[in-house]
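Supplementary notes for students who missed Thursday's class. We covered one full example, reproduced here. Read the sequence, then the structure, then the short commentary at the end.
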Amino acid sequence: MYWMIGGDGREYGPVSADQLGEWVAEHRANGQTQVRRDGETAWQPLAALPEFADALRDAAGHHAAPPPPPPPLPAEAAPVVGAGMSGQLDVGGCLGRAWSLLMANFGLIIGGCLLFWGLRRLLGYLCIGVIVNPILLGPLMAGLSLIVLKRARQQPTHITEMFSFFGPPFVQFMLLGIIYVVATSLGMLLCFVPGLVLMVIWAFAFVAAADRPGHYWHAMETSRHAVMPRFISVAVLLLIAWLPFVIATLYLQALSTSYAMDVFSNGGVFDFSLLTDQGRWKQFAIYTSGLEFKHAIVQLLNLPFALAVTVQAYEDLLGHPPGNRAG
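Structure (token representation):
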């Protein structure tokens, strides 16, 4: 599969080699047209790809080549996909298509989510999760999103594609994950609401990065431009998609708060002097670690459907026109 930058400066694809060959024959592309193979980040002239030598030679024999399209913009200056888009978000349709996508690819998506979740939990048990998890979040989440996105487009994929971005583009995906974690975590600490707002605004950042690899900020801006005109609709969709996890979070938080009152209270009144009691802290830590594990299990069970919903919403708002999707 290939991507092409047209004469209007926009990206087109992914398309097959046969489709790109037809565009050469129709003089919609020539030897100077900038293209890249799916999964690669470097653009190069079409003439540099030997598989299109015959098509270019045949096209040159019939007509003069059209003026070359403009060169690709650097990732930092690339036009933000989604700005001014006319895509409509169909909340009910996203939920229905997400469920169908999950049922049709149950083993693959569940397996990918289990691998993603298991790796992050393992790092946590090794006591390096606080440092390593933010670094690996971007590449792993983008890889998992790529698997689901390809199945939504009926393209072949494999669970090993979760590690697609551990090569040359790793740094950009690492920065995406780190900035996402740091910004949303700080937002949660600041009255909770800013963190939720950032989570909604950047809901499509990992899918966009997987679909159009490039600069990390471009993916985040792509998501922001797509979400802001329909912020409430996207927020409602995400709330429905993550509803079991949200309910579990509130319930387990209530249990934790109630238990803290029991452990650190004296005669039914919270006693600050008991905060220095190491035994009570150990008792509280054991109890909350059990709650945290239950919380993580609910997250694992909810992740496959929530990710499928996110991908389907991305396709509604930012996916390629049907004519450019791979069948």
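Commentary. Residues 69-86, 321-327 have pLDDT under 50 and may be disordered. The first strand starts at residue 2 and ends at 5. If anything here is unclear, bring it to office hours.
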